[in-house]
Write a structure and sequence with these properties.
Structural class: mainly alpha
Distance between the termini: 37 Å
Largest sheet: 2 strands, antiparallel
Number of helices: 13
Helix content: 55-70%
Order of helices and strands: HHHHHHHHHHEEHHH
Bound molecules: benzoyl coenzyme A
Length: 316
């Protein structure tokens, strides 16, 4: 019988060789807890993220736009399901993670606590929010936990399409009438800073990063990913003829990167702690939808139980 030290050495050696940790492998308790925290937060973000965009399905400007938005919002629900399934492999039930979300114990991405005021916000979310999500998720495809990594591979393919559909909306608005261009600029003004906040606190203040990087759960730090996002996105804004709302934004030839202004960290923590413009309504909507879906869950469970019983009778 192996003791904990031997098991830990085997675990570390696996990480060192770049192999995946799988659900039945031994893992340190803190590794398991960190993954449950991050994967459930990620799943909640996908599902809560359906609300700001769902808000515009009935008001999309054309049938084509409506069909595309509807499909995108459904994709986000699907991403939530992959991620909840990955999370369950770590020994926590779906009910428990949902309970943690609804009670405020579990977080979800701060970005989804901002309102979607105009149609241009659908463009800005696809372009910026999905763009930031991809930046983070490309790295997560190589995360050390097998089920999380495999979920991310599927999700990234769809997120790339989401980002492009958002950018295409922005292109049409930016090249449209002066009113449409102003609407696109206004959306960029409102979504830019909250998008930069998606990457989390500065490295120096990120309580989980060092351990997550040691365990290869995260492969890059919050600041590294944020910088990559800025470097990739600023030229896209220029191509649109829009202005990034940051007076300190400047190309730094020495670093071969953009310097950019300071994030309002007080606003970030305020939103994370539940006091953003839409935190309350997002959770209220989730609680209501969950309650209304109770009969579906009960019917599915009853059907599964009936099938299992029939299979038992056949075996007997
Ligand atoms: N919002 O030590 P840190 C999408 C928390 S949705 C809220 O750096 P970590 C989409 C953090 O949890 C995709 N909380 O943490 C859907 C921690 O608190 P706890 C969203 C945040 O985990 C619909 C504390 O602050 N993507 O694509 O090392 C439509 C200290 O932070 C935030 C994901 O969820 C935040 N922004 O790194 C469109 C990616 N940032 O838990 C699009 C998965 C930090 O210790 N998650 N906190 O109490 C991650 O990659 C990491 O968890 C983070 C944070 C980079 C977010």
């Amino acid at each position: 019988m192996e003791n904990t030290i031997q098991l830990e050495e085997l675990f570390d050696a696996k990480l060192e060789r770049g192999e995946f940790i799988e659900p039945k492998d031994w893992m340190p308790e803190k590794y398991r807890k960190t993954l449950i925290r991050q994967i459930s937060q990620h799943a909640h973000s996908e599902v809560i993220g359906m609300q700001p965009e769902g808000n515009w399905i009935t008001r999309a400007p054309s049938l084509r736009r409506k069909a595309v938005l509807l499909a995108k919002v459904q994709d986000e629900g699907g991403h939530g399901l992959y991620l909840y399934s990955a999370c369950e492999t770590l020994g926590i039930s779906r009910d428990e993670v949902i309970q943690q979300l609804q009670s405020g114990k579990a977080k979800y991405s701060s970005i989804f606590n901002y309102p979607t005021l105009t149609w241009a916000d659908m463009g800005a979310i696809g372009w910026l929010v999905d763009g930031a999500a991809i930046m983070n998720q490309v790295m997560l495809q190589r995360t050390s936990y097998g089920p999380y990594s495999r979920a991310m591979v599927r999700i990234c393919k769809e997120e790339s399409f989401h980002q492009r559909q958002g950018y295409e909306i922005m292109c049409v608005l930016a090249k449209g009438s002066p009113e449409q261009k102003a609407m696109a600029q206004d959306a960029l003004n409102r979504w830019w800073w909250p998008t930069l906040m998606m990457f989390g606190p500065k490295d120096a203040e990120s309580s989980n990063s060092a351990e997550s990087i040691k365990w290869k759960i995260k492969r890059e730090t919050n600041d590294e990913l944020r910088q990559k996002f800025v470097d990739r996105t600023v030229p896209q804004a220029e191509h649109l003829g829009l202005t990034v709302p940051d007076k300190d934004l400047k190309w730094n030839a020495e670093r071969n990167s953009y310097d950019f202004g300071e994030i309002d960290w007080e606003e970030f923590w305020n939103v994370v702690q539940g006091n953003g413009p839409c935190n309350k309504v997002r959770i209220e909507n989730h609680v209501r939808a969950h309650e209304e879906g109770k009969w579906v869950r009960e019917a599915a469970a009853a059907y599964a139980a009936k099938k299992a019983k029939a299979a038992q009778v056949q075996v007997a």
